[in-house]
C-alpha cells in the first residue's frame, strides 16, 4: 500500500478564524484577564524582578537572662529526684564548657545531676592527672538530680551586634537591628514581629496589617534598653509546637515515664533572610523553630570544688537540657531588568493555557463543533500535482503532451511514443466562425494542433 509523501509529511500552520460566538469569547477573555492578573501578582509578591543569591553564614549571638520579676518555685520541683530545684542564674544555666558565641547556638540546662568525687592526694594534680590512680572517681549512685527552677520564664535575647548577614558576591549586607524580624510557628502564622526603632509609619502599618492582622499586642519595637530580639524560653518552645517540658520523651534510651525536661532534646532555630515585600530594597528575616523528636542533649563537666571538698575534691555535673542550634539561610536580591524580563517571558507562557481551554471547547465541547472544525481546519491541494503541472508547462510543446499522457495513463516512457501515436490521430475541426478571436481558437482546439506530426503541419 503506497503512501503520499505530501500527506505523510504535511505541515500544519496557524490560521486566524474569527468565531463570532460570545460563548467562546467571554470565557477566553476571562481566562486571559485572570491569568494576566496572576502573573502580575506572582511577579510582585515573589519578587521575581530581583536577582537573588544565597546568603553566607553571618554571626549570631544569643544570651539568656533570668526572669525580671524573679525566679519562682514551680510545681515540678517537687517531682524531681532530689525533691527540689536548683535556682540558677544566667551564668549557671549555660555550661561553661560550651561556646555559645562561636557557633551561634546555646545549651539551656533543665536538669542537672551533681556527683561529688575525690582524687587520691598522693601527688595527683586534678588539672593534669599523671597516672591512672589520679583519675576522678564519680559513682552514679552518689549523684543527686535536680531540676532548674522556672527555666521556662528565662528570656533569650538574640543580640543585634552579632546577628549579621550578607550575600555571597553582591554588596548587600545588614544587621538585625535594621531589619524586620518575624517569629512564625510551625503552621507559618506570625506570633510576634520585631521592627526597627526608626521605621516609616507607612511601612510600619503595612507590617502590622500583613504580618499581624492589625494586632499590635504582638508588635515589639526595638529600643535602647532591649535592642535585640527578646523572647522567653516558653515562647520559643511554643513556636516549635512544644507545649510543655513535661511532655514524654521519644528518645529510644529514655524511660517510659521520662520527660523531655529530664532527657533533654535538640531545638533547631532557623533564621531565613529575604527582601521585604513592602520595600524590596529593605531586608528582613523570619524565625522558625523545629523540635527534633527522639533526641537527647547532655553536657558533662568536671568542676574543682575547692577547699570545702578538700584539696583534691571535684564535682561532676551532668547536665540535660535544650540544645539550641541556629541555622542561617535565605536569599538576598537586588533589582535586575533581565531577571524581570525572564520572569515575564516565562510567565506569559501561562496565557497559552487560556487558548488551549477555549480551543478544546471549540473543537470538542460546543454543540456546533462540527461547524467550527470546518472553519478551523482546512486542507490545501496536493502541491506535488501543482508542481507537476508547472513542470509540464515549462516543457517543449510536443514533449508536453507526452508528459501529460504519462501523468494521466501512468504509461512508461519507453512505450509512450507508440501509445501516443495511436491515441492522437489527426482530426479535422469545424470551420472557425469569423467572429472567433485567435485566443478563442486556441482555447477551442487546445493543444491538438501542437500534437500533430510535424509533416502534417508542414
TrEMBL record:
* Gene3D superfamilies documented for this protein: atp-gated p2x4 ion channel (1.10.287.940)
Q: What is this protein called?
A: Uncharacterized protein
Which terms in the Gene Ontology molecular function aspect does this entry carry? Answer: channel activity
One short Pfam family name for this protein?
Answer: P2X_receptor
Superkingdom of origin organism: Eukaryota
GO terms of biological process kind: calcium ion transmembrane transport; signal transduction
Give the record's keywords alphabetically.
Ion channel, Ion transport, Ligand-gated ion channel, Membrane, Transmembrane, Transmembrane helix, Transport
Q: Where in the cell is it found?
A: Endomembrane system
* Record-stated family: Belongs to the P2X receptor family.
Instruction: Name the GO cellular-component terms.
Output: endomembrane system; membrane
The membrane-spanning stretches of this chain are: 26-44, 337-366
Where does the protein principally reside? membrane
Amino acid at each position: 500500500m503506497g503512501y503520499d509523501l505530501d500527506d505523510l509529511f504535511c505541515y500544519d500552520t496557524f490560521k486566524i478564524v474569527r468565531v463570532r460566538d460570545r460563548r467562546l469569547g467571554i470565557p477566553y477573555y476571562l481566562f486571559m484577564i485572570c491569568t494576566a492578573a496572576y502573573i502580575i501578582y506572582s511577579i510582585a509578591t515573589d519578587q521575581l524582578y530581583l536577582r537573588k543569591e544565597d546568603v553566607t553564614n553571618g554571626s549570631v549571638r544569643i544570651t539568656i537572662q533570668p526572669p525580671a520579676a524573679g525566679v519562682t518555685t514551680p510545681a515540678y520541683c517537687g517531682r524531681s529526684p532530689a525533691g527540689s530545684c536548683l535556682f540558677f542564674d544566667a551564668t549557671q544555666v549555660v555550661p561553661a564548657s560550651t561556646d555559645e558565641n562561636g557557633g551561634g547556638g546555646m545549651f539551656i540546662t533543665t536538669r542537672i545531676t551533681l556527683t561529688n568525687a575525690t582524687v587520691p592526694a598522693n601527688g595527683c594534680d586534678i588539672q593534669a592527672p599523671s597516672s591512672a590512680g589520679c583519675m576522678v572517681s564519680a559513682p552514679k549512685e552518689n549523684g543527686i538530680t535536680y531540676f532548674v527552677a522556672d527555666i521556662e520564664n528565662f528570656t533569650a535575647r538574640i543580640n543585634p551586634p552579632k546577628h549579621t548577614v550578607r550575600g555571597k558576591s553582591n554588596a548587600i549586607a545588614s544587621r538585625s537591628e535594621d531589619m524586620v524580624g518575624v517569629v512564625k510557628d510551625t503552621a507559618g502564622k506570625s506570633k510576634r514581629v520585631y521592627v526597627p526603632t526608626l521605621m516609616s509609619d507607612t511601612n510600619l502599618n503595612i507590617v502590622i496589617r500583613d504580618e499581624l492582622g492589625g494586632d499590635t499586642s504582638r508588635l515589639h519595637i526595638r529600643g535602647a534598653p532591649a535592642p535585640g530580639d527578646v523572647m522567653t524560653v516558653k515562647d520559643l518552645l511554643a513556636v516549635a509546637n512544644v507545649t510543655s517540658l513535661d511532655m514524654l520523651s521519644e528518645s529510644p534510651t529514655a524511660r517510659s515515664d521520662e520527660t523531655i525536661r529530664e532527657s533533654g532534646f535538640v531545638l533547631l532555630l532557623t533564621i531565613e533572610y529575604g527582601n521585604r515585600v513592602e520595600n524590596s530594597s529593605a531586608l528582613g528575616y523570619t524565625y522558625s523553630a523545629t523540635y527534633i523528636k527522639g533526641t537527647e542533649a547532655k553536657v558533662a563537666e568536671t568542676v574543682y570544688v575547692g577547699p570545702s571538698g578538700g584539696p583534691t575534691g571535684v564535682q561532676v555535673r551532668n547536665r540535660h537540657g535544650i540544645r539550641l542550634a541556629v541555622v542561617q539561610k535565605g536569599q538576598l536580591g537586588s533589582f535586575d531588568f533581565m531577571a524581570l524580563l525572564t520572569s515575564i517571558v516565562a510567565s506569559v507562557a501561562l496565557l497559552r493555557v487560556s487558548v488551549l481551554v477555549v480551543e478544546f471547547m471549540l473543537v470538542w465541547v460546543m454543540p456546533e463543533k462540527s461547524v467550527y472544525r470546518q472553519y478551523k481546519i482546512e486542507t490545501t491541494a496536493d502541491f506535488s500535482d501543482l508542481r507537476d503541472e508547472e513542470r509540464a508547462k515549462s516543457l517543449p510543446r510536443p514533449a508536453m503532451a507526452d508528459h501529460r499522457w504519462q501523468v494521466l495513463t501512468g504509461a512508461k516512457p519507453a512505450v509512450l511514443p507508440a501509445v501516443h501515436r495511436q491515441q492522437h490521430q489527426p482530426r479535422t475541426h469545424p470551420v472557425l466562425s469569423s467572429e472567433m478571436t485567435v485566443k478563442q481558437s486556441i482555447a477551442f482546439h487546445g493543444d491538438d494542433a501542437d500534437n500533430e506530426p510535424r509533416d502534417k503541419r508542414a
